[in-house]
Structures are given as C-alpha cells and as structure tokens.
C-alpha cells in the first residue's frame, strides 16, 4: 500500500491493520510509513512471514497486537522499549527490542508460544502459551515478576508446549508476584 504523498507516516493505529507476507509494507511517498509507528490502540497483526522494525521511539500497546509464528516485530533504536499498558499482545513469532530497554507490562496481558528477545518486567499478566493452551515461551534476557504481576501456565500432561507450559529464560528470573 502507498499513501499518495509524504504525510509523516503512521504513528498511531486505532483501526485494524494487518501486514501479511515478507514483502508487505506501507509507503508514505517513498518512505516506510510505519517507521514511526509507536502507539497501538486498535488491532495490529503480523502474519505470513511479515517483519516490521520501528525506529523512532518507545512502542506502547493498549489494544491488540498479534505476532504470528514466523513473523517479527522489532522495537528499534537506542533505549526504546515495548510497553503493554492494557489489551493483549500475542507472541507466537518474535518480539525483539534492539535498544535493550526491554518489555514492560503495567496492564493487560502478554501471551504466546514464541520468543521475547529482551528483558521482561511483568507488573500485569503473562500467559505462557496462548489463551487456555500450553506453550513454550522463550525469553532471551531476564524476567522480573513484580508484586503486581501474575504468570499463568497450563499443566495437563508430560509434553512441553502441548500438554504443559514452559517459560524458558536465558538470564536470571526474579519472582516477586502472586
């Protein structure tokens, strides 16, 4: 998709926006219209191998973000973070923060059976696996569960990812939640 003329791009999504496929993009003139995308209050989804890197600032979600298997959302730039304040982020693909500021959950839920490639601070809810399903959620970094945080796992057998949930963390884990 291409916007008719350079208008500064899309910074906030309050609608339903889905990027599908490895070549999916939205252009603002000749530039990436989503380079400054930093606020989702609607529904945003990546599917079919789509990738998106934002570069201008922190990314805040209070709507619904879906990162399907085989897709990647990267919060780029130095010191930028992914902030979940409400709503749901489902990560069955990869959510990466190149600035190492991490993922901060203060409201809503992050769930899935994908990879979070950054440090995670949970003051809300993490579902290991998708809603009501077991899954393997990997964190490349540290996991800090604050006293306001909740972590939900599914247990129903002996097979990881299909019968019980597993949170795999490469760094340290600090559990201070309930």
SSE inventory with pairings:
Layout: E1 2-3, E2 12-13, E3 16-20, E4 27-28, E5 31-32, E6 39-40, E7 43-47, E8 51-54, E9 59-61, E10 64-67, E11 72-75, E12 82-84, E13 88-91, E14 94-97, E15 103-105, E16 109-112, E17 115-117, E18 120-122, E19 125-128, E20 136-139, E21 143-145, E22 150-152, E23 166-169, E24 173-175
Parallel strand pairs: 1-4, 2-6, 3-7, 6-9, 7-10, 8-11, 9-12, 10-13, 11-14, 12-15, 13-16, 14-17, 15-18, 16-19, 17-20, 18-21, 19-22, 20-23, 21-24
Antiparallel strand pairs: 4-5
Characterise the protein shown here.
The chain is mainly β. The chain has one domain. Helices cover 0% and strands 45% of the residues. The chain has no helices and 24 strands. It has strands at 2-3, 12-13, 16-20, 27-28, 31-32, 39-40, 43-47, 51-54, 59-61, 64-67, 72-75, 82-84, 88-91, 94-97, 103-105, 109-112, 115-117, 120-122, 125-128, 136-139, 143-145, 150-152, 166-169, 173-175. An eight-stranded parallel beta sheet has the order 2-6-9-12-15-18-21-24, with no helix packed on it. It has a seven-stranded parallel beta sheet with strand order 3-7-10-13-16-19-22, with no helix packed on it. A hairpin with a 2-residue loop joins β4 and β5 (31-32). It is globular and about 50 Å long. The termini are far apart.
């Amino acid at each position: 998709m291409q916007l008719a003329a350079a208008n500064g791009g899309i910074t906030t999504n309050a609608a339903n926006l889905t990027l599908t496929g490895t070549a999916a993009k939205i252009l603002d003139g000749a530039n990436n219209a989503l380079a400054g995308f930093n606020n989702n209050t609607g529904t945003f989804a990546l599917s079919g191998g789509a990738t998106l890197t934002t570069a201008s600032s922190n990314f805040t979600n209070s709507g619904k973000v879906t990162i399907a298997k085989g897709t990647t959302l990267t919060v780029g730039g130095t010191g930028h973070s992914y902030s979940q304040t409400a709503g749901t982020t489902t990560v069955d693909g990869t959510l990466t923060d190149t600035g190492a500021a991490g993922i901060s959950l203060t409201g809503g839920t992050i769930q899935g059976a994908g990879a979070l490639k950054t440090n995670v601070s949970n003051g809300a809810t993490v579902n290991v696996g998708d809603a009501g399903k077991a899954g393997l959620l990997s964190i490349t970094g540290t996991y800090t569960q604050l006293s306001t945080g909740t972590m939900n796992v599914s247990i129903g057998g002996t097979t990881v990812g299909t019968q019980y949930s597993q949170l795999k963390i490469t760094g340290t884990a600090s559990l201070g939640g309930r």
